Amino acid sequence: MGDMFRSEKMALCQLFIQPEAAYASIAELGESGCVQFRDLNDEVNAFQRKYVNEVRRCDDMERRLRYVESEMKKDEVTLPVLPPGEEPSAPNPREIVDLEAHLEKTDNELREMSANGASLDANFRHMQELKYVLENTEGFFSDQEVINLDVNRKLDPEDPANLPGAAQRGQLAFVAGVIKLERYFSFERMLWRISRGNIFLRRADIDGLVADEETGRPVLKTVFVAFFQGEQLKQRIKKVCTGYHAAVYPCPSSHAERTEMIKDVNVRLEDLKLVLSQSADHRSRVLNSASKHLPRWSIMVRKMKAIYHILNFFNPDVTGKCLIGEGWVPTNDIPTVQDALARASKISESSIPAFMNVIETNEMPPTYTRTNKFTNGFQNLIDSYGMASYREVNPALYACITFPFLFAVMFGDLGHGLILLLFASWLIIKEKQLASIKEEIFNIFFGGRYIIFLMGIFSIYTGFIYNDVFSKSMNIFGSAWHMNYTRDVVQDENLKYITLRPNDTVYKTYPFGMDPIWQLADNKIIFLNTFKMKLSIIVGVIHMIFGVSMSVVNFVYYKKYASIFLEFLPQVLFLLLLFGYMVFMMFFKWVVYNDTVEGALSPACAPSILILFINMILQGSQDTPEPCKEFMFDGQKSIQQVFVIIAVICIPWMLLGKPLYIMIKRKMNGAPPPKPTSGGGEGHGEDDAMGEIFIHQAIHTIEYVLSTVSHTASYLRLWALSLAHAQLSEVLWNMVFSMGFKYDSYIGGVLIYVFFGAWALLTVGILVLIEGLSAFLHTLRLHWVEFMSKFYEGAGYAFEPFAFKTILDVSDDD
């Protein structure tokens, strides 16, 4: 937890590495994940860098790996999952050559088998379709048609009937083929139109599904035979067949020739089946062999590519015998980096060991906050608002407590908190098994499991305070109220209400939380409204005062001592003298006014805090009946006037204090005023022009004064959501679950189960999920806007070290 108070100290380090040890050094640094390298070759084109050829080799190996993996997915070959901790290290140069050779061999072999397999599949498919054509056209021909339908038969040139000019009206030709059934009817209409009805078309559907040559998916196909007359019409038919992707096959009209051709096709089909089976077995052996090594190969190639990518950030020295690189390193990890460089020099047997120097710089370092699995979720909430400036106070440390507490104030129900606690406990207990799930929505809940766990615990606590369990109260310690009316008075039909005065009916203080008797009171909502409204203002003011106070820690660390008196002091005085005073009046009213005294301090004379506060600001007054008084104590009016005057003075104090201080400081130092910049800078500092400083301070002052009012009112959401949550819970109990108690006998027992199921479903769906998400978002807003805006700048950038673990995790997500 101590590491979370502010980000870690960073050092800009310069690395001097021998070229022969550069690869091993970066590999060791990648395993440690402690260095964020800087690109020293910004102006150099990516294709002109030293290690561009090695990066291209890695790209080529990645391409081969993707192809092999895609082929495995086609054949549904499962890849083994590497257990955590057994990931291979980056390959050494000799392993790189062997790995490249293995990948090239596997890739070429698979591509050759794929090409041969596609050719064999096409031949097998064509042979099958030819067989379908020969078998299904058997009924299209008769013995009488053999004479006139054989388009391939040789004609006797000496026969006068076969002369070129002779009429051949009795002779028909035909074209046979296979077409998709869905295209056949359009195909038939097209043939009818081009021949003007002079084509006789027959078809026979193929039983079962046939593989489509275009997509490979099984489709319905049909065999067709088109009878026609004339060579010109034959050419037209073939063009239509080509347009409709219909396969045309040779088909003799003679029965004997067809029978002989079917036998030949069957023999060729058997040969093709044997060859295809042997090819599939060989392909399966190659893929299974490659699948055993593919996960390791993939990790090795990704690590190798990342190493060469980082090496392109380095600059060679003048002699070319040394590589120079720069990077940010957490000061606590400098020994780790030095050990990694020493190991790399030993592995590569370099004659000169690599070494590292820390160099001074005015550049703002990256922000790095060391977290664990518990604090990581809270840190992510803060980083979503903006990355903290370097060494700025980290709000995540305090959000570990304030975030679940403010959530619980809105979500206060012991039963609903127990549901959250059980769900989070399951995520925590099973976190090793559940960590492998990659579903996005589930990962959001899993990443915030410790946040949900604390929200559940705090909701149980506030549930005890509110004495609320699924809208019901628990009488653990026994009610502190007792009935002082007789039975006759209570049973009087003309009596509508019974008033229990605390002075007469309260005999002790309920030890913890709300007295359960309020569950029966008619003014329950009025009482809880007042209680929760005041509670939300008290919590909000304390939260904001704490946020303003945290700015002192930043001012002290950055040695801006003048800002403590010119910014913090007027801000905290403005907040305390107005809204801190209002909180004081709430406690004073609770303590002084009670039912045990009469006169000006009786509950009937208690003034409204809101009216008192408005009159304090506007310097107004109100008439009060005797014996009541306008103010709660003597001298209150004078004190309020002093507070308002000081609060008003704080406004010009905030507005002009810092700019005038900077102006005087510059005159005393004799420094020339800086020239106004054309923009593009981040933030506003003491080096800006005076005009910009005055404008910035005016904006900051106006924002703070107005936001103090609006932010205080914003904390009323704690009251509003708490009231809405309690009322929704009560409505679900009364309108759903309690309906099962209205029936007697066994029917009531069955209905209780039915109504309980509906009530449980609605409770989890509406009150836990939807209301929980609503309370979570409102809590997030209270931290981002109302709390962090008081001291948090969030103008930094994240520390992104070169780490193989991060690279592999990102690749797995992609």
Automatic annotation (TrEMBL):
Keywords: Hydrogen ion transport, Ion transport, Membrane, Transmembrane, Transmembrane helix, Transport. The keyword Transmembrane applies. The chain crosses the membrane at residues 405-429, 441-466, 537-557, 564-588, 600-618, 639-656, 746-770. It is found in: Membrane. The keyword Acetylation does not apply. One of its GO terms (cellular component) is plasma membrane. It is a multi-pass membrane protein. Essential component of the vacuolar proton pump (V-ATPase), a multimeric enzyme that catalyzes the translocation of protons across the membranes. Required for assembly and activity of the V-ATPase. This is V-type proton ATPase subunit a. GO terms for biological process: vacuolar acidification. Belongs to the V-ATPase 116 kDa subunit family. GO terms for molecular function: ATPase binding; proton-transporting ATPase activity, rotational mechanism. PANTHER family: V-TYPE PROTON ATPASE SUBUNIT A, VACUOLAR PROTON ATPASES.
